[in-house]
Design goal:
globular; 417 residues; TIM Barrel; alpha/beta; binds pyridoxal-5'-phosphate; 2 domains; Lyase, Ornithine Decarboxylase, Chain A, domain 1
Length: 417
């Protein structure tokens, strides 16, 4: 499942002792295993081999150039949501014909750049957006391809903030409007509407919601066909859940067994957009214990990482396993693991059973590879941390820790006279 394992009471990432990286890099930092990352990509590819889909890694989950390059080298495409992501994907060597662009608010600048770059598909999220793309493409004298992102309005049992397949959410286009757009294709002569896209949410651990959404959308595609409307692509999005605590998510193979027969029937080219499944368990966040505090009501482990580095606990009340990187067999007690930031939401765990750790001990916050660094910020004027990748016996810094200069970049002390 992942390549972070204890050997002789020390946590290793593949063949590298995590403590040896701390000596070079300091703390806190994100640490990724190349093997876990690429194995997860290959697992999806193998499970879906029959369909030979374009697997577009959702780089919003982790946009580090080395992470995306490792996947691009194995044939991955990229699912992007901004011009920044598009630029990074191209720099990492992504094939534009394997890039799909979602986002409910694509700007003129982003659309023009994506057209210029020759991406495979715009995943269009509203009729006004389609009109806008058509206009920009006309001005540029280009014909582009788009898929309509359908909001299938199906229940997806996940956290409210990462549930995207309901009509109460801003994403995608309802079925009635989608049908109208397909029928009125002539209104958009510079856009070939050549696909349908769905993405119902993230960290979904059962295949039932995916199957429900795919059935709904394939029935819709069948209806379109009957009306003489043919498309080439079906993009089934991402959303596959992973193990953070005691979840029992479907494996790639179990997922494929359920959905491949439905997809195969369509005869369409399939696109997938997994993010978390590929990189979630491939990364940990390493942080150092600064102080232990006992206020008579609660015991706190205060660490040098904060919610600005890993927002998921504060944002989604997400669970991350926390382990000392040197096996500690002392009697466990309940602790809140908290950062130094001036917010009560600055925590990694509440009431967590942990051994008696002390100042200077190092902790690994597990399964932090997805939506970890990618969501980090400079809140409290804290530099973004370093990122490190291990491959076998070697490790490399793949993002330097930010400096004081980075923290003030672009800022100007105002002068009025
Ligand atoms: C359009 C789209 N595709 C793919 C993903 C990736 O989801 P996940 O990381 O759960 O696979 C997201 C995540 O929000 C998304 O919005």
């Amino acid at each position: 499942m992942h390549d972070f394992k204890f050997k002789n009471d020390e946590l290793y990432c593949e063949d590298v002792k995590v403590s040896s990286i701390v000596k070079r890099v300091g703390t806190p930092f994100y640490l990724y295993s190349y093997k876990t990352l690429t194995d997860h990509f290959l697992k999806i590819r193998k499970a879906f081999l029959k369909l030979n889909p374009i697997i577009c890694f959702a780089m919003k989950s982790n946009g580090n150039l080395s992470v995306i390059k490792s996947l691009i080298d194995l044939g991955a495409g990229i699912d992007i949501v901004s011009m920044g992501e598009l630029r990074k994907a191209l720099i990492a060597g992504a094939d534009p014909q394997k890039i799909v662009f979602a986002s409910v608010g694509k700007t003129e600048e982003e659309i023009s750049f994506a057209i210029e770059s020759g991406i495979l598909l715009f995943n269009v999220e509203s009729e006004p957006e389609l009109t806008h793309i058509n206009l920009i493409a006309k001005r540029m004298g280009k014909k582009v391809q788009a898929a309509l992102r359908i909001n299938p309005d199906v229940p997806a049992p996940t956290h409210e903030y990462i549930n995207t397949g309901s009509l109460k959410k801003k994403f995608g286009i309802d079925l009635r409007t989608t049908r109208q757009i397909f029928k009125a294709q002539k209104k958009y002569p510079y856009v070939k509407i050549n696909g349908v896209h769905i993405h119902i949410g993230s960290q979904i651990t059962s295949s039932t919601p995916f199957v429900g959404a795919i059935k709904k959308v394939t029935a819709f595609i069948e209806d379109l066909k009957k009306e003489g409307i043919d498309i080439e692509y079906l993009d089934i999005g991402g959303g596959l859940g992973i193990i953070y605590k005691d979840e029992n998510p479907q494996t790639a193979l179990e997922y494929a067994r359920k959905v491949v027969p439905l997809l195969q029937k369509t005869g369409l080219k399939i696109i997938m957009e997994p993010g978390r499944f590929i990189v979630g368990n491939a990364g940990v966040f390493v942080t150092k214990v600064l102080y232990i505090k006992d206020n008579g009501v609660k015991k706190f482990v205060i660490v040098d990482g904060g919610m600005n580095d890993l927002m998921r606990p504060m944002l989604y009340d997400a669970y991350h396993e926390i382990v000392p990187i040197k096996k500690n067999r002392s009697v466990k007690a309940k602790f809140d693991v908290v950062g130094p930031i001036c917010e009560s939401g600055d925590f990694f765990a509440h009431e967590r059973m942990l051994p008696q750790v002390k100042s200077g001990d190092l902790l690994a916050v597990m399964s932090a590879g997805a939506y970890g660094y990618a969501m980090s910020s400079n809140y409290n004027v804290r530099p973004r941390v370093a990122e490190v990748m291990v491959r076998g016996k070697a490790f490399k810094i793949i993002k330097e820790r930010e400096t004081l200069k980075d923290l003030m970049k672009g800022e100007i002390i105002v002068q009025w006279s």
